[in-house]
Amino acid sequence: MGLLAASSAVETSAQQTHLVVVGGASGTAEFRERFHEWGLTVVRAAVDRHGLDPADVVWLAERPEMDPLIDGPSRRENIEAVLGELSERAGPDDAVMIVLIGHGTSSGNESRFNVPGRDLSATDFAFLVERFGTRTVVFVNTASASGAFIAEISGPNRTVITATRSPREGNATRFGGFFADAFAGEVADTDKDERVSVLEAFAYARREVERSFEEEGLLATEHALLDDNGDGEGSDFEGEDDLDGALARTVFLSRGGGRVTDAEIAADPELAALYRQRQELEEQIAALTALKDTMDAEQYEAELEGLLVELTLTTRAIREREGGGGP
Questions:
Q1: Correct CATH for 5-252 of 1.20.1250.20, 3.40.50.261, 3.40.50.1460, 3.30.470.20
Q2: How many CB atoms lie within 10 A of CB 63?
Q3: In this predicted model, what pLDDT tens digit does every residue of 129-169 receive, in sequence order?
Q4: pTM for the complete prediction?
Q5: Cβ–Cβ under 8 Å, residues 114 and 35
Q6: Is 242 exposed, middle or buried (0-12, 13-18, 19+ CB in 10 A)?
Q7: Interatomic CA distance for residues 307 and 311, integer angstroms
Q8: In this predicted model, what pLDDT tens digit does every residue of 92-112 receive, in sequence order?
Q9: Residue 138 CA: distances (Å) to CA of 34, 54, 61, 272
């Protein structure tokens, strides 16, 4: 298992996770260093903190000579080749995370992600993502003018995150740095289950973007959105009518450095039972969240708190069992 793990992953020993990080055209030395640091943070977190196999990580960037971890230049043909090859190699139960870091532009009805050479549009990426079929895909565009990517890429089993809510938000964004930080540390783990879900990473980054603008006394020029129900409409989670989040809540960072394999879990009935219990709790939380608008607010908060406490205790029991070295 690697960076992303759907809640059913424990029962699927062949599942793998693949991470593709694309650093786009920077325009200036300042942005070049910034985008490099954000990309490096995600890649290091994936491998060093969350145990993803380096063979399942691809990092394309504007200047490959800046770091030995970079696999090649982020030109259009390389991005297409990497995603095309991965769509053929990845197993039917595998998960894929694609993270774009850089600048974006919009002209007319077309939004683009800027790379050295010919840019890729939202339509271009939609075509590439479509090749993954029913696999779990998390597509994160941290660039400016990225909001239009949601409508193009949205679909079943897909979580789409953009740094802006519309193509008109064209200023350089801050979202990517905070999103990377969410993977690298524990601060985004709000339910304290020792994992960071995609939803938690999104919420943390969005919250930190807002805080950074407020601290500087500036009007926010970016408003991140998340879509994971396939309707092509992103949510900001500021109101009570948001329809997204159920899928993103159940997609997580890995168990932690690959300490215990799926085979080892299957060989330990107690550990396997704990993983099943955690999966059931996650499903109950997702179901409860879907009913939020139909419930009394106090009842909803009480039931959610109870489930989160159970989830935390179950995760703690899993960690203790894993630390004990097996049955």
A1: 3.40.50.1460
A2: 15
A3: 999 999 999 999 999 999 999 999 999 999 999 999 999 99
A4: 0.81
A5: no
A6: middle
A7: 6
A8: 888 899 999 999 999 877 999
A9: 23, 19, 19, 27
